[in-house]
């Protein structure tokens, strides 16, 4: 789909497990309105975007990785705006 370089299957499974664990934190924090954790995800998503962009610019990753970074950047901005709108309406 993204035409990323192949990695060994075991590492792909490890990465998949990590994504599930981190995603679980996101779901739990959202369902329980854990604002400090939700705010923290904004910074981590911006860090991820910056890191992926730097890896691309330095030639360590192909351009096909950029959509992942862009989606996380959009998610960070969306979360930030949602938290701000909740603060102004309450």
Task: Walk me through what this model shows.
With 90 residues, the chain is mostly helical. It has one domain (9-89). Helix content is 78%, strand content 0%. The chain has 3 helices and no strands. It has helices spanning 9-31, 35-57, 66-89. Helix 2 runs antiparallel to helix 3. The radius of gyration is 15 Å and the shape is globular. The protein starts with 8 loop residues before the first helix and ends with a helix. The mean pLDDT is 92.
Tell me briefly what this model is.
The protein has helices spanning 9-31, 35-57, 66-89.
Topology:
Blueprint: H1 9-31, H2 35-57, H3 66-89
Helix pairs in contact: 2-3
Describe the largest sheet. Answer: none
Broad shape: globular
The share of residues in helices is over 70%
Q: What's the total count of β strands? A: 0
Give the total of domains.
1
In round numbers, the mean pLDDT is 92
**Helix/strand class:** mainly alpha
Q: Which series of helices and strands comes N to C?
A: HHH
The fraction of residues assigned to DSSP E strands is under 5%
Total helices: the number is 3
What does the radius of gyration come to?
15 Å
Low-pLDDT segments:
none
